Amino acid sequence: MPKKTNSINFEKSLIELEKLIETMEEGDLSLEDSLKYFERGILLTQTCQQALTEAEQKVSVLVKKSENAKLEPFNPNDNEE
After folding, report:
1. Which residues, at least 6 apart from 48, have a Cβ–Cβ distance to it below 8 Å?
2. SS3 for 9-78, per residue?
3. What is the pTM of this model?
4. pLDDT higher for 12 or 4?
């Protein structure tokens, strides 16, 4: 059974990152607090990027195992009508 900890960590990290950005955009933080938020944001960004990379690798492995599937570039405009 697949682990859900990575997706949970990704979701939590993304939510925390969004909150950090909102707080920073308000402009009410001191320079010291802004730097702390920025550092935390960088860490969260790296965590999210790592989770996305791992997910992409898993998809690639699954596609390679499937006989009829092929990996194609994602184009979000393909789903628009």
Report:
1. 10, 13, 14, 17
2. HHHHHHHHHHHHHHHHHHCCCCHHHHHHHHHHHHHHHHHHHHHHHHHHHHHHHHHHHCCCCCCCCCCHHH
3. 0.69
4. 12
Q: How much is the average pLDDT of 12-26?
A: 95
Contact present, 54 and 6 (Cβ < 8 Å): yes
Q: Is 1 helix (H, G, I), strand (E, B) or coil?
A: coil
Radius of gyration of the chain (CA): 18
What CA–CA distances, in Å, run from 13 to 58, 66, 76, 81? 20, 32, 24, 32
**pLDDT recorded at residue 73:** 77
Q: How confident is the model at residue 71 (pLDDT cuts 50, 70, 90)?
A: low
Q: In angstroms, how far is the first alpha carbon of the chain from the final one?
A: 36
